[in-house]
Design a protein that fits this description.
Aspartate Aminotransferase, domain 1; single chain; alpha/beta
Length: 375
C-alpha cells in the first residue's frame, strides 16, 4: 500500500487511473477478495460453516477493539452506521424535555434519527463557522437536559477534524450528556484516541477498505446499561429460545445489543481481512505517508480560484473540499481523464489514502488548474 510494488500487487484496479475518492468508496486490497472467497467456501459447508463464520466474527471484533481502544466484548458489528444510530435512538428512550445536540457538518446517519417526528427530544444544532466547529459555540447549547452530543471525528463534508479532547472536556463539564463519535472518515486513515467516548460508530466501505454491509459499534463497559437496545431480534437477547420466550424479551446491555440478528458474514470476513491488512501496515505509517500529500494538495488548492470549504487552519485527515460554479463540468472532465473525485451540489471533494502517491496529487492538480483556466 505504501510502496509502488505493494500498490500494484494489492490494488491492481488502481493501475492507469488517479483515485481520490476513498471518502465515498474505498478500494479493497486483494486480501478482501480472498476473504470473500473463503466465506463462500465455508458457506458451502452448510450448518457446519457456522463454526468458521462465528470465528471470523470473533476475530473481526478483536481487531475493531484494537483500533477503538476497547475490548472485544465492547464491540458489535451491525449492518451499517444508519442501523447503529437508529438502535442507539431506541436505547436512549428519549422523553419530552430531553435535548440532543447535532451539527451541520455531520453525515445524515448520525443526525436524522433525532429529527424524525417520532423522536420527542428537542434537537439543537451546533453550527460551523468558516468550515469548523468551535467549542465556544457548543457551550451555549449544553444544559442539564442534554442527553446526547453526537458528531463525526472527521467531517464527510469538508474534512474538518474535531478537537475531540476539547469537545469531550466541554461536554463533561457542562452537561450529563453521552458523547457519540462517528469515525467513518477517520478509521484506517489517522490514528485514533477515543478515550472516554460513550458510543463509537463506523461504516466499513470507505477508509478501512472492506465492503458494504457493516457497522462497527463500540460501547465501553461502563456505559453498557445506558446503551441497552430494546429491539426485536434474537442474537442480542439474553435468552431468545428459553421457556419465557413468548412472555418477555430482555436485551443484553451494551454493544451486544446492537447485533440484533444473524450477522452479515460476508461483510464480517471482509472486515476482518481489511482491518488485519491495515494493522499489518500500521495506521500511523499510512498517515505519515498520506498526510504530506494531503497538506501539499491543500496548499496548492489555496492558490486557485475556488471557494475552499476545508478549514485553512488546523489538522487535516484525508478529506479536502471546495466549491466552484462549474463543479459538475469539472468533475465530468476529470473523469474523462480517469481522475476520480466526488462531486455533489457544486462541491468537489478529494480524499487521500495510503495507496495514493505524489503522482496522483500532481496529476489531479495539473488537470484541475487546466480546467479552471478553461471554464
Amino acid at each position: 500500500m505504501l510502496t509502488n510494488d505493494s500498490r500494484r500487487g494489492d490494488f491492481p484496479s488502481l493501475e492507469g487511473r488517479t483515485y481520490l475518492n476513498t471518502a465515498a468508496e474505498g478500494i479493497p486490497p486483494l486480501v478482501v477478495q480472498n476473504a470473500l472467497q473463503h466465506y463462500f467456501a465455508d458457506k458451502q459447508l452448510g450448518m457446519d460453516g457456522r463454526v468458521p463464520h462465528f470465528r471470523q466474527l470473533e476475530l473481526a471484533r478483536e481487531l475493531v477493539a484494537r483500533f477503538y481502544g476497547l475490548t472485544a466484548d465492547e464491540i458489535a458489528i451491525c449492518s451499517c452506521s444508519s442501523e447503529a444510530y437508529n438502535l442507539a435512538a431506541l436505547a436512549m428512550r428519549l422523553s419530552e424535555g430531553d435535548e440532543v445536540v447535532i451539527n451541520d457538518l455531520d453525515f445524515p446517519a448520525g443526525v436524522t434519527p433525532w429529527l424524525q417526528s417520532g423522536s420527542p427530544a428537542t434537537v439543537r444544532t451546533w453550527r460551523s463557522r468558516d468550515g469548523a466547529l468551535r467549542t465556544e459555540d457548543l457551550l451555549p447549547l449544553l444544559s442539564p437536559r442534554t442527553r446526547l452530543v453526537t458528531t463525526s471525528l472527521v467531517s464527510f463534508y469538508n474534512g474538518f477534524v474535531l478537537p475531540l479532547p476539547e469537545v469531550r472536556h466541554v461536554v463533561r463539564r457542562h452537561s450529563p450528556a453521552l458523547l457519540s463519535v462517528d469515525v467513518t472518515q477517520a478509521l484506517g486513515r489517522i490514528p485514533l484516541d477515543l478515550q472516554d467516548v460513550d458510543l463509537i460508530v463506523s461504516s466499513t466501505h470507505k477508509w478501512i477498505l472492506a465492503t458494504h454491509g457493516g457497522g462497527l459499534v463500540g460501547v465501553p463497559q461502563k456505559r453498557a446499561e445506558e446503551w441497552t437496545v430494546p429491539a426485536g431480534g434474537w442474537l442480542h437477547l439474553q435468552d431468545a429460545f428459553g421457556p419465557k420466550r413468548f412472555d418477555e424479551a430482555v436485551s443484553r446491555p451494551g454493544a451486544a445489543g446492537f447485533a440484533v440478528g444473524m450477522p452479515n458474514f460476508p461483510a464480517v470476513y471482509a472486515i476482518r481481512a481489511a482491518l488485519d491488512y491495515l494493522h499489518s501496515i500500521g495506521v500511523a505509517n499510512i498517515d505519515r505517508v498520506a498526510r504530506p500529500l494531503t497538506e501539499h494538495c491543500l496548499q496548492e488548492l489555496r492558490k486557485l480560484p475556488i471557494e475552499l470549504l476545508t478549514p485553512q487552519n488546523g489538522p487535516v485527515a484525508g478529506i479536502l473540499a471546495f466549491r466552484h460554479p462549474q463543479a459538475e463540468r469539472i468533475h465530468q472532465k476529470l473523469l474523462e481523464q480517469k481522475i476520480h473525485v466526488m462531486a455533489h451540489a457544486g462541491r468537489l471533494r478529494v480524499a487521500v489514502h495510503g495507496y495514493n502517491t505524489e503522482q496522483d496529487i500532481e496529476t489531479f492538480l495539473r488537470a484541475l488548474k487546466d480546467l479552471l483556466a478553461s471554464v
